[in-house]
Amino acid sequence: MHPLRVPVLLVALVLASSLVMALFASVPAGAFVTTVESAKVGLQPRSTLLGGTPLNINEFPLVPEKFANPRGNAIVAASRIYAIYWDPTKDYYHGDWQHVIDGFLQSMGSAGGSLSNVFAVDAQYTDAANQHALYKSTFQGAYTDTSGYPSSGCKDPHPLEAEDLIGPGHTTVCLTARQIEEQLADFVTQHSLPKGMGTIFYLMTPPGVTVCLDGGGVSGHCSDFEGTIGEIEIDEKVREKDKEEELLHKEPKPFVESANYKSYKDSFCSYHSDINPSSPSGDENTILYGVIPWTAGGLGDPHLEPNDRTSGYACQDGGWDPSSKPPEKHEQKKEKDTKEIAEDKEKSEEEQEKIVEAELLEGPHPQEPNQVKCPSSDGGCDTGLADLIISQIGVEQENIVTDPLLDAWQDPNGNEASDQCRDRYAYVLGGNVGAQEIAGAGTLYNQALGDNNYYLNDAFNLAAYKLPYPGVPCLTGVALLPQFTAPNPVNVNEIVGFDGMESDISLNAGTSFDSSGAPRPSYATYTWNFGDGSAPVTGYAPGASLANSPNVSSCGSPTEWEPPCAASVYHSYAYGGTYEVTLTVTDVGGNTASIKEPVTVVGPTPTPTPTPTPTPTPGTSTTGASTGSGSTSTSPGQTPVVPPAVTPPPVLRAAVTSKSLKKALSSGLPVHYTTNEQVAGNIEVLLESTTAKRLGIKGATATGLPAGTPRSIIVGSAVLVTTKAGQGTIRVKFSSRTAARLKHTRKLKVTLRLSARNASRQSPQTTTMLSIVVLNP
User: Fold this and answer.
1) pTM (predicted TM-score)
2) Domain spanning 479-603: CATH 3.60.20.30
């Protein structure tokens, strides 16, 4: 039941590779909720040939801006995940495939709560109870179910040639959705596994086992399809030509779907559904599940016959580097003319085979970051095929948590969360796009979960359609970077502004539900603490809070913003000194981050209230009595000792003058500082440990960070010594190894830590400041 059977004919392959590039710029789309016979499912159909449009795009167009859950139906806040491999032969779902897939599910659970991966995007989606589809999963383990398959309930549109792979005396198996559901329900009961809205089961079948939603065959809806890729490409070329003629106001020749074309259009890669024996709205007896048939093809698998060693890229849609440029900007491959084709035919059989191989490597192909060095333990080069199955689990996980009962988050045409960003994989973190020999796949990856790398479809960010900045609808992770620029030193009672709208917040707008269950807009929350003892100010974006701008009539139209607003605020200080201003931002997914910046106010400091010295009473003693810092100790008849004045800490300020990553790596990060006196200390550049681990960067652990600050390592440092008050610029250099690792990073967030003490005082005090810096290429 391999998805793409490529005829070993030179002309067909040349046509295939050229047509694939012609389809390269088509609009991406994806799955949808549908009912086939009695089976209601969230379907993930095959794509056209490369990053292209599903053939049913005109039937189910995307409406991402209207993606909603109007009735607040249930989502999955946190999930326990069970993997089930239904494989009576006990050996055809290869152990190395299971190891890679189980490792992914474990890594997904271990990385729960992190913002740097695709599943964190789903936290913006809510239900009437205002639960969030949090990135919080727990892998409960895997199991190989050796229960025998029932008699085929459907007809495989295109069975494997090597039927003996299923086992002696067996024929190719075709299972219906009903048979899958019955087996899963029995399995859960037999093993006393937990049910309910917090548990998800993934049932997987091996190569040679086709799954159909109906009776199958050429007209069925199956995980396999009739015909070959070459035939489908020819039909699609005719279809595109008819469209062009229609656009040119010509009389189009009616396009008649061939049986093979319709079979491909109706085929699918995976689906999800639910079993609700007692409550259609979900309860403790509900079984949520995803069905992941083997749609990864068979490239590099020595157990298959040559004609079955085919590519499964239409269920992953890889084959190009999405971070390099948008699909519509990629150059189309030039088709060979009649003369070139004739010349190829005149070449020897060996030369023609080399041409075929070259065309395959240049054309569309999957991405397998977990491919091992060939040959693998079974003598093949097929371990990486598990990455295509992982890709399907990734999209079904997003769809299940946001639309578990097929009645929650969808657009008006039934398209689910993963559909809105189908075929988007930007930005990649590493690997090579080019197909490798034997495996026929590249090694690109865009997700780093723990110590493992994966290639997963982007997640849909509805917030991008509600607010223009950042406004990125397809994400591989979530940004939550509060930022504001502190004003220059100001005078007492002068009004100063703080603009939190500088912040980079992916999930800055969402949906909440009121007590009646009606949806209403929600936004990221901004909280300011000015460091002077005044009350914190909290509100939404944009605009000023009435607490410090009493004449502001409104922070925006009620249809756009939820009052009060506090992304931008004004404040004034009554006394001189250096104050630490803290901005804390909470996005609509419930994630929170803070940033602190010092503000220098010039003017008289508050006069301390003197503490009266108690008069000693004869016969009493206050020796050892402590009143904290600056306390005195006296005995009868003694004169109280007045402690020396406490040395004030230095006033410091620092800022990066250039945010070019390229320049920082070549000549150092330029840090401009100002100080009010002679100081001695250092400047450090810190990198979060999770990012450092992903990039393979090592360094000393940064100690003494404030509570709640992510663990970080020191990747650069410089000494700061001055002889008097003033200003200057210091360049913080990176090691050559660190610079090499950061060279290809597209956007780097680091923390600048400046720490200095009074250099000319007997009792020096230290001032430490932290600021977030984002470096761009």
Assistant:
1) 0.73
2) no
